[in-house]
Amino acid sequence: MNEFAKFGGLQSAYDDLLRRTLAGIPSDLARLIYLASTRDYNSGAYHHEGLSVRHRPGEARDALQTAHRDIFYKLAAMSLEEMVDELELYVRVSREQTTGLLRAWQELEPYRVAVPMEVDPTIVRLFLSNIRLALEVLKHRRLQHQGLPSSASPLPSLGR
Amino acid sequence: MTEILVFAGIPILVLVLLSLLGATWNIEEDASEDAEEGFRQRWPSDRETAVCIRRIFSPQDREFVERQGSDRLRQIYRAERTRVALYWVRRTSREIGQIMRDHRMASRGSANLQVGRELGLALRWLEFRLICGMLIVLIRLFGPHALKDLATQALEVSKSIGRVLVDSAPANRIAAAGTPGGA
Q1: Whole-prediction pTM value?
Q2: ipTM
Q3: Which of A108, B65, B101, B114 falls between 20 and 30 A from A78, CA-CA?
Q4: Of the candidates A13, A58, A67, A8, which has an alpha carbon nearest to the alpha carbon of residue A35?
Q5: Where are the beta strands (DSSP E) in A56-107?
Q6: For chain A (length 160 residues), average pLDDT per consecutive 10?
Q7: Which residues of B touch A156 (CB under 8 A)?
Q8: C-alpha distances out from residue B59 to B20, B86, B113, B143, B171, Å
Q9: Which residues pair with A46 in a beta bridge?
Q10: Domain extents for chain B?
């Protein structure tokens, strides 16, 4: 009975988080970054003021952690094409200059801190690799669109 | 006679080398990765991992990159995917190696050791190491996409080893506990 009540409480907090907070965020990548931002850098514990008021603190914390992992796995399982679309949408809604954002993401790699704890290391590698590739694709498209000669210009073919 | 020895010996030598490669190639290169991540163990049969492995070896992403029409992107893509694929092979090999070592230690104290099952397990282990060795060589030579089937087979063999060990673990523990000097 207690276990059921506990699970029911967590499910309720999770649904609440999806409905009230995450539904208002326009892309999965933005949701991932938002959820990572609710995690304390030092302790790794999640905290959301509104959720903690409406639910037990433990349930709110677990709901945030579960949602973080779910979104992460969803993104990691995406094809590269879908990841590029996600990143493009994220850039569009971020209100930052596209060139500046792409440059900052390539140099600082802030997306690394968006990875949840205790997830499969191979999946982490795949996710980070896909983000790096998606950034390269967007950069390439942007330079092509501007008609600029870029580092993405054709190189001598290797073995083809 | 010499020709027979040469023809029989070369494949055996290659198999032994590949087997050793599957188990040891990662040692020098992965030391920093171990320190960085520790051993965050998750069983490779997790649904997410299976989806992830298929993604690494799937040609879908490569076709998307091809459509972008940039040689530079192609090169970056191949380097990135090769790195992830090699990491997966090494990690899987290391994890199963650890499980086999644990099993060997547990089996030493076991009173009801089933020779047939242990032999079958040893053969599966040898097969797994050979596949890992071949995967490492072939990924380096041709990239990960030509190897989807072999990677899937490695995943299946690693799962079957895990299943055998999970099934046998309680029996071994009980037997070992009942044996003088057992755990």
Answers
A1: 0.72
A2: 0.81
A3: A108
A4: A67
A5: none
A6: 54 92 94 96 92 90 94 93 96 89 94 93 94 96 76 40
A7: 71
A8: 29, 16, 44, 11, 43
A9: A39
A10: 44-168
